[in-house]
Amino acid sequence: DDDDDVPQLSSHALAALQEFYLEQQQREGTKTSQGFNQYSIGSIEEDWQLSQFWYSDETALCLANEAVVAAGKGGRIACVSAPSVYQKLKEQDGKDFSVCILEYDRRFSVYGEEFIFYDYNHPLNLPENLLPHSFDIVIADPPYLSEECLQKTAETIKYLTKGKILLCTGAIMEEQAAKHLGVKMCKFIPKHSRNLANEFRCYVNYASGLD
Fold first, then answer.
1. Which processes are annotated in GO (biological process) (predicted)?
2. What is the distance between the alpha carbons of residues 154 and 25, in angstroms, rounded to a whole number?
3. So what's the pLDDT on residue 198?
C-alpha cells in the first residue's frame, strides 16, 4: 500500500491542529467584524528573533502625540525602528503631518511608500529621495542595547533630523545616548505590551512634554 509511508497524525494532534485553525479563523473574523484597523498595534505580531517588543497602547499614543507637537504644523516625522509609534501616528488620520517608517522587518512594507527598508548595520544606505535634515523630528528605538547599534543608528538619526531627536532605549544606555546624540533622559517611563527585563527610558535633545 502506497499510503504506508505517509506519516499520520494521532487523533490528539489532529484535534489540537483543528482547534488552532478554528481559533485563527475566529481571530480573523473578529478583526473583520470590528472593522479591523491595519495600523493598530499588534496587527503585525512581534518577532522576538528580530528583538521586537511593541509599546503598550498608552505609551505609543503618548510618544506619537509628543512627536506631532514637536514636529509642528505640517511637520515631517521619521520613525526609525519604532513601528508602534508609526502605527499610532497613522491612526490619527487627517492630522497635519507626514510620517515614514524605517524598518528592517519587511512585513511593514504593507504600509506602502511610507515604508523604507532599513538595516542599522548600513546606517546611510538610504533612498536618494530621503534628503538629509528633512525631518522635523526623528523618533528612534534601536533594536539592541549595545553601543555599536546605538552609534550606527545615531548616524541615521543625525542624517535625517533637522535637530529634534526622541530616542527610546534602555536606562543603561544613558551615557552612550548623551555621547552619540547629545540627548538627556526624560521623566516619562515608556511601557511595553509585554514586560521587559531591562528598564526602558526616553531621551530628548529639546524641551519636550515628556517631563
1. methylation
2. 42
3. 75
Judge whether 45 lies within some domain: no
Angle among Cα 137, 107, 165 to the nearest 5 degrees reads 15
In a domain, 25, yes or no: no
Q: Which domain holds residue 160?
A: 55-204
Cβ neighbours around 97 below 10 Å, total: 18
Within-domain flag for 11: no
Buried b (16+ CB within 10 A) or exposed e, 146-160: eeebbbbbbebbbbb
Mean pLDDT of 128-151: 96
The reply to whether the predicted model has a pTM over 0.70 is: yes
Please tell me the total count of domains within the chain. 1
- Read off the CATH number of the domain in which 170 is found: 3.40.50.150
Tens digit of pLDDT for each residue in 188-208? 999 987 665 678 999 999 999
Q: Does 33 reside within a domain?
A: no
pLDDT at residue 70 tops 80: yes
Cα separation, 3 vs 145, whole angstroms? 52
**75 with 81: CB under 8 angstroms?**
no
What is the rounded distance in angstroms from the CA atom of residue 132 to the CA atom of residue 50?
A: 27
Q: In terms of DSSP bridges, do strands 200-204 and 184-185 run parallel, antiparallel, or are they unpaired?
A: antiparallel
| Nearest of 68, 73, 71, 104 to residue 85 by alpha carbon | 68
Give the 3-state secondary structure of residue 135: strand
